[in-house]
Design brief:
The chain has about 300 residues and is mainly beta. It has one domain. Helix content is about 5%, strand content about 35%. The chain has 4 helices and 18 strands. The chain has a 4-stranded antiparallel β-sheet, with no helix packed on it. It has a 4-stranded antiparallel β-sheet with strand order 8-9-15-12. The longest helix is centred in the N-terminal third of the chain and has 6 residues. The radius of gyration is 20 Å and the shape is globular. Keywords: Signal.
C-alpha cells in the first residue's frame, strides 16, 4: 500500500516558516488543492445512500481548471463480512465530484457477506501541475487516457481473438509532465479512474515504480473468471486515470504533508484476511499534532 498523508496543522508555531522560499511553488500548490472529509450521515438520512445513488462532494473552492480527484476507499476493520466495494468517480467539475460506492460483482457471494457503507470519505482534489515544495519535496499531478488493462484470467479461446489492450501497461515518464524536476527517490503514487466510460467493474493499478517513471493501467480484477472466455467483458473505451506522484515531508503555514511507501501483508490464505491485513502500522516521525487525512 502506498500512503499519502495530509494534515491541516493548525498548531504550527509560525505562519512564515518558509516565507523566504518564494522561488518554490508552495503557495501555488496550496491554491491549487482542496482536501476534506465527506460525512455521508451528515448529508443523507440513509447511511447507504451513496451505495444506492450517486453522491456529490462540493469542494471548498472553485478551481480554475478541472482538478484530479482522489477518494479514499475504507474498509470496516475487524469485519470479515464487509462486501468488497470501491468509490467510483462518475464526473468531475471545477467545483464538485460525483461518485458512487459500487459493490464488486458478487458471483457465489457467501450469505453472510453484505454491503457496508463507507460513511466517512476523505477526498483530495489538485489541479494538474508540477510543484517544487520545501524540504526537497515534490508533487506531480496529471492524468492519462487508456483502455489498457490488467486481468488475472486468460481471454484467448477458439474463435475469439485476444484483445490488443489485454494485460498491457502505459508507461508514465514524469519528465514529460515537469520541467526541472528530477526525483531522487521513488515517489508515492496515488491513482484513480476519473471517468466511467465502460459499464463494468474497473479500478486502477500501478507497478514498476522508479524515481521518475512508473507503469499504470486499468484493473479488471477477477470478477468474471467463471464466464466463458469469449463472454468476459473487456474495457473497449478509454478511461482517464488521474495520478499524483510525490516525495518528501514538509510543513508550510497550516499544512503538513508526508509521502511514503508501505507494503501490506499477504493475508489471502489466512482465516481472517481483512482483519490481519488491516493490522499494518506506520510510525510518523515526528508525530502529527492531530489525526491526519490519509490516502
Amino acid at each position: 500500500m502506498r500512503y499519502f498523508i495530509i494534515l491541516l496543522w493548525l498548531l504550527l508555531s509560525s505562519n512564515n516558516v518558509f516565507a523566504a522560499k518564494h522561488s518554490l511553488n508552495t503557495q501555488s500548490f496550496i491554491d491549487s488543492m482542496d482536501v476534506g472529509r465527506y460525512n455521508v450521515a451528515n448529508n443523507h438520512t440513509d447511511k447507504s445512500f451513496c451505495i444506492k445513488n450517486n453522491c456529490t462532494i462540493r469542494f471548498n473552492k472553485t478551481f480554475d481548471t478541472i482538478p484530479v480527484v482522489f477518494l479514499m476507499n475504507t474498509v470496516n476493520f475487524n469485519d470479515e463480512n464487509d462486501q468488497p466495494s470501491a468509490l467510483m468517480i462518475k464526473s468531475i467539475t471545477k467545483s464538485s465530484v460525483t461518485f458512487q460506492q459500487v459493490m464488486a460483482p458478487d458471483y457465489k457471494k457467501p450469505k453472510n457477506v453484505i454491503p457496508k457503507p463507507m460513511t466517512l470519505i476523505n477526498y483530495l482534489a489538485v489541479e494538474k501541475g508540477a510543484y517544487k515544495l520545501p524540504n526537497n519535496s515534490y508533487v506531480i499531478v496529471n492524468s492519462i487516457r487508456t483502455n489498457k488493462f490488467q486481468y488475472k484470467f486468460g481471454l484467448k479461446s477458439k474463435g475469439f481473438k485476444k484483445p490488443s489492450n489485454y494485460n498491457k501497461w502505459e508507461l508514465v515518464n514524469l519528465h514529460s509532465y515537469s520541467t526541472g524536476i528530477d526525483l531522487k527517490e521513488k515517489p508515492g503514487v496515488l491513482h484513480q479512474k476519473q471517468t466511467a466510460n465502460n459499464d463494468m467493474w474497473l479500478t486502477t493499478t500501478v507497478a514498476n515504480v522508479d524515481k521518475n517513471k512508473f507503469s499504470i493501467a486499468l484493473e479488471k480484477s477477477e470478477i468474471d473468471g467463471y464466464k466463458e472466455k469469449s463472454k468476459r467483458q473487456i474495457p473497449s473505451k478509454e478511461e482517464t486515470i488521474g495520478f499524483l506522484a510525490g516525495v518528501g515531508d514538509f510543513s508550510y503555514q497550516d499544512l503538513r504533508m508526508l509521502f511514503g511507501l508501505q507494503k501490506t501483508k499477504d493475508t489471502l490464505q489466512l482465516k481472517d484476511p481483512i482483519t490481519s491485513g488491516c493490522g499494518n502500522y506506520v510510525d510518523f516521525t515526528p508525530p502529527f499534532n492531530s489525526i491526519p487525512f490519509i490516502f
